[in-house]
Amino acid sequence: MFEQFLQQFDILSIFIRLTMSMIFGASIGFDRSKKGSPAGLKTHSLVCIGSTLVMLTSEYCFVNYGLGDITRLPAQVISGIGFLGAGMILVTGNDRIKGLTSAASIWFSACIGLAVGIGFYFGAFVATILELFVLKLLSKHFSTQANQVTIDLYIEYTSSFDLSSMILLMKNHKIELVNEDNHLLKNLNVKENSHSTIISLQISNTMDESELISLFQSIQGINCVYTIN
């Protein structure tokens, strides 16, 4: 009985679907925000809600006007979300590709939103749980090294940046700078009022990414820090 109620296409059902998509998207985005990803809670929530709205609009046109193929608009979401994901992918100075996880997470949120929009609640719920499992557990327990993980940090800093403080902080917390390309170190030389760089760090897998970001934010002259993964 309750399942039949959820499958109805009325005002209450539309409200429930949009609310569910917001919850699913926010749960994924919250995890990404804790890891310092530029695509966090708001981005994932909006993508998920927007995808649900597109599916609802397509279903509305089909039910009320009998117009066209119900899958035409959702198909454009799947391909169009690639433009948003492409802006998150970066190639670092040591020729490593970063941002694929964030891009895939955004695309996945759009898929979840479409599933909720058409009323496939169980599939959307299971997919959300599986994505959180992959992001939270698999990334920790199946890293390339047993006790250490490599993290890329995007840093914006000013002329007051204190390089010696950063070196001391890294030494005290056993953080190693992965220097496969010398230009990463050269970018840290302060010559102008504002700079940005990407550095690769090797940290213990027991250190949380939010803790790492807080440490670097405490360094004088650093304005912005977030992870790229």
Write structural notes for this entry.
The chain is an alpha+beta fold and 229 residues long. The protein folds into two domains: 2-141, no CATH class; 148-228, ACT domain (Alpha-Beta Plaits), CATH 3.30.70.260. It is built from nine helices and six strands; from the N terminus they run ααααββααβαβαβαβ. The protein has helices spanning 2-7, 11-34, 41-65, 72-86, 100-118, 121-141, 163-172, 183-186, 209-217, and strands at residues 90-91, 97-98, 148-158, 176-178, 194-204, 222-228. The strands form two sheets. It has a four-stranded antiparallel sheet, covered by helices on one side. Strand 1 and strand 2 form a beta hairpin. Helix 5 packs antiparallel against helix 6. The radius of gyration is 21 Å and the shape is elongated. The termini are far apart. Mean pLDDT is 80; it is low at 180-191.
List the helices and strands and how they pair.
Blueprint: H1 2-7, H2 11-34, H3 41-65, H4 72-86, E1 90-91, E2 97-98, H5 100-118, H6 121-141, E3 148-158, H7 163-172, E4 176-178, H8 183-186, E5 194-204, H9 209-217, E6 222-228
Helix pairs in contact: 2-3, 2-5, 2-6, 3-4, 3-5, 4-5, 5-6
Tally the helices: what do you get?
9
Uncertain spans: 180-191
Structural class category: alpha+beta
As a whole number of angstroms, the C-alpha radius of gyration is 21 Å
The shape, in one word, is elongated
- Overall tally of structural domains: 2
